[in-house]
Specification:
Layout: H1 6-17, H2 22-29, H3 33-54, E1 62-72, E2 91-100, E3 105-112, H4 116-129, E4 135-138, H5 143-152, E5 158-165, H6 175-178, E6 184-193, H7 202-214, H8 229-245, H9 256-260, H10 269-278
Parallel strand pairs: 1-4, 4-5
Antiparallel strand pairs: 1-2, 2-3, 5-6
Helix pairs in contact: 1-2, 1-3, 2-3, 3-8, 3-10, 4-5
């Protein structure tokens, strides 16, 4: 079996973490596109396992939660025809992110449909990772209220921020106006429970921009979107691990993992690859039937 050199693996993963698409990485590194995809898939799976092992027993004072939109295969589920039933693995996929505001670390994340079930699973996972009852700020998405109350109890300090945007004319033909963000005309902060000291989602919204810039799968107006759900999930896991462990935050002067106390140094891409692949079991792959060697038994003579 051919094994990709470690330096080449570092080169590929570093490019993927900086927002380069798989086809471009294949050309830049002179590597087969399928090899790039397989490496990204294996490292992404390992990063998800690495996050589950490291992000536990955390003490954070304040958490911000938000969702980031992307899509797999196509933008929306078909509304007409024989395939009008929504698919759980295709169409719109939202990545929920829970960010510790003081350390800028991504404590928890989950990708799925923007519905009550995914929100409940996301908040339950967040509850299992943190100690105590931190202060939580979310947007106005209503399922957050019940999910946070069920997971953290009534004594949690939960605040909601609602932003009202100006209505843009849908018939605008100028690209600079059509794709520019709408202007915020009003901001309303509501207390759901407890006494939150601050109600804001600014840090996690900035992290959403970081993810959209650092992963080609989240880039708008491009064909770099994910075609299948599993590679999309692995790409998110790779970004989260790279962001927490390898990327030095400009304001903190350290990585979020160091600020959180779960790492004592800045990880290199090589360190991340080694740790991620170490979590993955080595499973033999079955050779395709058309590539199997054919043996012919020859009967020898007898004495």
């Amino acid at each position: 079996m051919n094994i990709l050199p470690h330096d080449k693996q570092v080169e590929i993963i570093a490019a993927l973490c900086e927002g380069v698409g798989q086809r471009a990485v294949s050309r830049l590194t002179d590597t087969d596109r399928k090899t790039v995809a397989r490496l990204a898939l294996r490292v992404g799976r390992g990063c998800a396992e690495l996050h589950d092992r490291m992000m536990v027993g955390l003490r954070v004072q304040r958490i911000e939660c938000d969702e980031l939109w992307a899509y797999v295969g196509h933008k929306r589920n078909p509304q007409k025809g024989p395939k009008r039933h929504p698919s759980p693995v295709m169409g719109d996929q939202y990545t929920y992110v829970a960010l510790a505001s003081a350390t800028r670390a991504i404590v928890g994340y989950r990708t799925g449909k923007r519905d009550t079930e995914t929100t409940d699973l996301f908040i339950r996972d967040l509850r299992d990772r943190v100690l105590g009852v931190p202060e939580i700020s979310t947007d106005g998405y209503h399922p957050y209220r019940n999910a946070i109350r069920d997971a953290f109890g009534n004594r949690v300090a939960h605040g909601v921020i609602n932003k009202t945007y100006s209505v843009t004319h849908l018939a605008v033909t100028e690209a600079s106006r059509r794709y520019s963000p709408a202007q915020v005309v009003a901001v309303q902060r509501d207390v759901v429970s407890g006494v939150p000291a601050e109600i804001s989602t600014s840090y996690v919204e900035r992290q959403n921009l970081t993810l959209r810039m650092a992963s080609k799968r989240f880039a708008r107006l491009s064909n770099g979107f994910s075609k299948k759900l599993e590679p999309h999930l692995c790409a998110v896991a790779l970004h989260v691990a790279f962001y927490n462990l390898c990327r030095v935050h400009e304001a903190l002067r350290s990585t979020p993992a160091m600020a959180l106390g779960i790492a004592d140094r800045v990880w290199t891409i090589g360190d991340l690859i080694d740790a991620a692949l170490a979590t993955q079991p080595i499973t033999p792959e079955t050779t395709a039937p058309d590539r199997r060697k054919r043996f012919q038994v020859i009967e020898g003579g007898k004495e």
